[in-house]
Specification:
The complex is a heterodimer. By secondary structure, chain A is mainly alpha-helical. Chain A contains twelve helices and four strands, in the order ααααβββααααβαααα. Chain A has one domain (2-217). Chain A has helices at residues 2-32, 39-55, 60-83, 91-113, 140-162, 164-174, 176-181, 186-209, 220-233, 238-259, 264-278, 286-291; strands spanning 118-119, 130-131, 134-135, 213-214. In chain A, the strands form two sheets. Chain A has a two-stranded antiparallel ribbon with strand order 1-4. In chain A, strands 2-3 form a two-stranded antiparallel sheet. In chain A, a hairpin with a 2-residue loop joins strand 2 and strand 3 (134-135). In chain A, helix 2 runs antiparallel to helix 3 (60-83). By secondary structure, chain B is of the alpha/beta class. Chain B has one domain: 3-Layer(aba) Sandwich (Rossmann fold), CATH 3.40.50. Chain B contains ten helices and ten strands. The chains are: A mainly alpha, B alpha/beta. Chain A binds chain B through residues 164, 167-168, 170-171, 174-175, 177-186, 286, 290, and chain B through 52-54, 73-75, 78-79, 83-84, 86, 90, 92, 94-95, 99, 102-104, 106-107, 137, 151, 155. The complex binds adenosine-5'-diphosphate and magnesium ion (MG). Residues 15, 18, 20, 38, 40-46 of chain B line the site of adenosine-5'-diphosphate. Adenosine-5'-diphosphate (ADP) binds next to strand 2 and helix 1 of chain B. Chain A: Belongs to the binding-protein-dependent transport system permease family. LivHM subfamily. Chain A: It is a multi-pass membrane protein. Chain A: This is Branched-chain amino acid ABC transporter permease.
């Protein structure tokens, strides 16, 4: 029971981060039909920027703001300069471009920040809570991670559901031509979509780094788990990404806790294959909702 | 010149080697319905798509009240007061009925005007009011047509471009929608360019008509005169 509680809470914390990362992938996929393989590298880069600021004497919170703002800017710049030119071309072009970015950003980070392991501070205590006299793996910092993700998700929901800007962004994602005919500046909406997605991705990169080590490839595993979570949720559905992220976080935590941590990557792959075989449209695809 | 005069001159549009529109001149006036008729492939949709900036002309001009919109981007043309209801209707099915309508109302309208406009559209089209919170994919063909016309009207356009609004609709619904359109033009004084293959219905509410064939204007006259010209009807209009 103790073990189960431990593993479940750990899984939820991890799942929250995967959910944020999957959400970043989904926001980009549904507006520009690009799977952004560079998402992890972008988050890694902005986390290094935060680390630089923090090591320069600023607080964690200044670092957080720097990472988020840098993420927004990086997303917008990449959409404008790198993605826009290949838009409308063969789909493979965009894939190659994001893979190229992934490699380039990792190389650049190694040059600028070095490729050694560096520890990243956590804003809250990393010692587990005590329940009934026993220490568990759930920490004050885990609570911070979950709260941070929930706050960002609620902000996004509010933006998309309740504001004119959010409505225009959704319209531009669903139908560019009709949106233009209604006066929506589609190009600007797509840039903004990439910026927001990269901001959310940066947050997940920063949360994962907290209390742990960063190096240029530290996000590589998260890209895989986040992608599996996004596919599980249907790639098109922000709610699906969140549920998918939590599900993957829990499943992988159970695998790690009961079967052995060396099996986690394999389990992620197995889940991906299972989803693609059994329900390729994902749990939350609209087409599926329409058929029932 | 009254607001809402659309002057098209020498408009030529090509898709690669295919010239879909060949030096077309049309002037549409405020308070009138101008029907653009012709067989499938005549260039009717290309005409509207060129006016609204979705495709670029090779030559010619589009003027709205004297302002040159020929090379403006589609978003800017929409904001200038030209509302294009595309062929196949252009409902965004992933959004709710009300979200679709609000998009139309966003072109600079104040909140208060938006709410009043929405109320008017719901009054005009009661089926939309019943389904305002549903995703638009639940709507029938006729309701979708109501939605896109309502959405276009909410933007407060000077010019309304309609591409085959009768397509796939039952005759009774077509009559109802065309009737509403006529009332609108008479009361609000908008300019309507109505593209139709269904020439008989279109001419019944139009003031003037233009017939396109292979991208060229082959006839233009008062709607009643076109409808009465047997030779023309048999050659180009199919009734
Ligand atoms: N996107 C396109 N690419 C190439 N040719 C096109 C395209 N759209 C239309 N055409 C051609 O242009 C001509 C006019 O088409 P269109 O404007 O759709 O006619 P209509 O609306 O009167 O049926 C046709 O020969 C059609 O095949
Ligand atoms: Mg057509």
């Amino acid at each position: 029971m103790q073990q189960f509680l431990n593993v479940t809470l750990t899984g939820l914390g991890q799942g929250a981060v995967y959910a944020a990362f999957a959400l970043a992938l989904v926001l980009i996929w549904r507006s520009t039909r690009v799977v952004n393989f560079a998402q992890g590298a972008m988050a890694m880069f902005t986390t290094y920027l935060a680390l630089t600021v923090i090591e320069g004497g600023q607080s964690y919170w200044v670092g957080l703001v720097v990472a988020l703002v840098a993420g927004l800017v990086l997303g917008a710049v990449i959409e404008r300069l790198v993605i826009r030119p290949v838009e409308g071309g063969p789909e493979l072009n965009a894939v190659i471009v994001t893979l190229g970015l992934f490699v380039a950003l990792q190389a650049l980070a190694a040059i600028l920040f070095g490729s050694t392991f560096r520890s990243f501070p956590a804003p809250f205590d990393l010692r587990g809570f005590t329940v009934g006299g026993v220490n568990i793996a759930f920490t004050p910092n885990s609570i911070y991670i979950i709260v941070a993700v929930v706050v960002v998700m609620l902000a996004l929901v509010a933006l998309f559901r309740f504001t004119d800007l959010g409505l225009k962004m959704r319209a531009a994602a669903f139908s560019q031509e009709v949106s233009r005919l209604l006066g929506v500046p589609v190009g600007r909406m797509l840039t903004l979509g990439w910026a927001l997605a990269a901001g959310v991705g940066s947050l997940s990169g920063l949360l994962i780094a907290g209390g742990s080590l960063v190096f240029p490839a530290y996000m590589d595993a998260v890209i895989v788990y986040g992608f599996v979570a996004a596919v599980l949720g249907g790639l098109d559905s922000p709610a699906g990404a969140v549920v998918g992220g939590l599900t993957i976080g829990l499943l992988l935590s159970y695998v790690s806790g009961y079967l052995g941590s060396e099996l986690v990557a394999l389990a992620a792959l197995a889940i991906l294959v299972a989803v693609l075989l059994v329900r390729p449209q994902g749990l939350f695809a609209r087409t599926a909702a329409r058929r029932v | 010149m009254s607001a809402g005069t659309l002057e098209i001159s020498g408009l030529t549009t090509s898709y690669g080697p295919v010239t879909a529109l060949d030096t077309v001149d049309i002037t549409a006036e405020r308070g009138q319905v101008t029907a653009v008729l012709g067989a499938n492939g005549a260039g009717k949709s290309t005409l509207l798509r060129t006016i609204s900036g979705l495709v670029r002309p090779a030559a010619g001009q589009v003027l709205l009240d004297g302002t040159d919109l020929t090379h403006a981007p589609a978003e800017a043309i929409a904001r200038a007061g030209i509302a294009h209801v595309p062929e196949g209707r252009g409902v965004i099915t992933e959004l709710t009925v009300e979200e679709n309508l609000r998009l139309g109302a966003m072109l600079g309208a104040s909140r208060r005007r938006t709410e009043r406009g929405l109320a008017q559209v719901y009054e005009m089209f009661p089926p939309l009011a019943q389904r305002r919170r549903h995703d638009a994919h639940v709507l029938s063909g006729g309701e979708r047509q109501m939605l896109v016309i309502g959405r276009a009207l909410l933007s407060g356009p000077d010019v309304l471009l309609l591409d085959e609004p009768s397509l796939g609709l039952a005759p009774r619904i077509v009559a109802q929608i065309f009737g509403l359109l006529r009332d609108l033009v008479d009361s609000d004084g908008v300019t309507v360019l109505l593209v139709e293959q269904n020439a008989r219905s279109a001419l019944s509410i139009a003031d003037v008509g233009v017939v396109l064939n292979l991208g060229r204007v082959v006839a233009r006259d008062a709607a009643a005169a076109l409808a009465a010209d047997d030779g023309l009807r048999h050659a180009y209009l199919g009734f």
